[in-house]
Amino acid sequence: MRPVRIALLIAALGAVQAQAGVFDDEEARRQVTDLKIKTEARFDQQAKAQLDLASQIQRQAEEIARLRGQVETLNYELETAKKRQQDFYLDLDSRLRKYETPPAATASSDPAGNGTPANAKPAGEPAREGQEYEAALNQFKAAKYKEAAASFGGFVQKYPDSSLAPNAQYWLGNAWYAQHNCTKAIEAQSVVTTKYADSAKAPDAWLAIATCQQELGNPTGVKRSLETVIAKYPTSPAAESAKTRLKKK
Fold first, then answer.
1. Do 100 and 163 meet the contact criterion of CB atoms below 8 Å apart?
2. Residue 15: its pLDDT value, please?
3. Which residues contact 5 (CB under 8 A, 6 or more apart)?
4. How confident is the model at residue 20 (pLDDT cuts 50, 70, 90)?
5. What are all long-range contacts of 198-205, with beta carbons under 8 Å and residues at least 24 apart?
6. Per residue in 161-194, pLDDT tens?
7. 225 Cβ contact partners less than 8 Å away, ≥ 6 residues apart
8. DSSP state of 218
9. The pLDDT value given to residue 44
10. From 2.40.50.430, 1.10.1740.10, 1.10.3720.10, 1.25.40.10, which CATH number describes the 128-249 domain?
11. Residues in contact with 246: Cβ distance below 8 Å, sequence separation at least 6, in sequence order
């Protein structure tokens, strides 16, 4: 009987070990499954975060593109407005030129009795002034701003007392502005506002100075220039423009 008992005991022990092995395998598989589920969940979470980030980046890119488009549109509208204003002043200047006449010679004769007006300019000088002024203006119209600046600068030096000198000085400032040189543009327009303060170009020169001051980042100067236009030339079209610009600040 003893060998049988021993055999049964060995068989029972083997069964227990086999059952323990089964339990160990199932536990291992369960842990592997749990780990797999957790890993997949983590990957899914990371993938969702990446998708959200990509979506956010896409929205920001679209917003940047939209803002860039708006900036380009505003720049185009600004340049168009500047061009229209420039064309308007050029056209107005040309129209006014048609109505300008050189000062008439006085009837008084020279002491010698030659019939020559006293203090008269040499014959043909007003015509030369007009030709030189028109040539400089045509250079400006053709966007030859460097040449126009030289021509207008030469004109005001040559004919400082001409009736066209304030206009030439004003367009000299615009020629510098067109070359993106606001410092020289302000210098030129300041001559209009001081030496030719009573001319029709003076209020426009103040507006041009304000524009340059704005581009140079001088808001105090801009406000002062616009207020000067309104105070000194209240009935001028430039004063209305100055009021509108002040309201926008």
1. yes
2. 59
3. none
4. low
5. 199/166, 199/167, 200/166, 201/166, 201/167, 201/169, 201/170, 202/166, 202/232, 202/233, 203/229, 203/232, 203/233, 203/236, 203/237, 203/238, 203/239, 204/89, 204/170, 204/238, 205/169, 205/170, 205/173
6. 999 999 999 999 999 999 999 999 999 999 999 9
7. 206, 207, 209, 210, 213
8. -
9. 73
10. 1.25.40.10
11. 223, 226, 227, 230
**Per-residue tokens: 106:** 């006085």
Query: pTM for the full model?
Result: 0.57
The gap from C-alpha 107 to its chain's centroid, in whole angstroms, comes to 56
Give me the pLDDT at residue 53, please. 81
4-18, 49-63, 93-107, 222-236: the lowest-pLDDT one = 93-107
**Tokens 């005991």 correspond to what residue?**
9
CA angle 246, 205, 233 (to 5 degrees): 65
Q: Are 192 and 208 in contact (CB under 8 A)?
A: no
Tokens of 213: 């001051």
* Helix ranges, the chain (H): 2-99, 125-141, 145-158, 165-178, 182-194, 202-215, 219-232, 237-247
DSSP state of 114: S
**Cβ(230)–Cβ(242) under 8 Å?**
yes
Q: What is the pLDDT of residue 85?
A: 56
The tokens describing 11, both together, are 């068989």
Q: Which residue in the block uniquely carries the two structure tokens 């969702």?
A: 48
Question: Is 239 strand, coil or helix?
Answer: helix
**Which two structure tokens, joined as six digits, stand for 41?**
């969940």
Domain boundaries, the chain: 1-79, 128-249
Both tokens assigned to 65: 């593109």
